[in-house]
Amino acid sequence: QGQMVESGGGLVQTGGSLTLSCAASQRLGRYGVGWFRQAPGKERVFVASISWISPDTFYANSVKGRFTISKDKDKMMVYLQMNSLQPEDTAVYYCADTPDTGLGSSLRLRVGAQPGFENWGQGARVTVSS
Known about the structure:
Layout: E1 5-7, E2 10-13, E3 18-23, E4 30-38, E5 44-51, E6 57-59, E7 67-72, E8 77-82, E9 91-99, H1 105-111, E10 124-129
Parallel strand pairs: 2-10
Antiparallel strand pairs: 1-3, 3-8, 4-5, 4-9, 5-6, 7-8, 9-10
């Protein structure tokens, strides 16, 4: 197993768009990938997740309708397309994966239970200017 690698962060104006990429080192035995973010002075929270195994995708209410998570299994890449960005979206965005442990894997992915995620990347900083 290896660390995930995020890319694509940057500075964008309010209402703008940005796409983050997450490179995984392996897919075998891994159930899915989640995106999380940590705003200045706040705890890291779940943003979105996607399964390697099924079409399932999940989103936090705060980004639903604005962000889209997608995957390229052959390239072992997961993307986060972020539209209509707002200043409150400013944060460091992290991706991590979760193992396929059978029962519970889907729930873990659905709620973005951070203790169940591994191989955290270094993060990509996104700044939305007002």
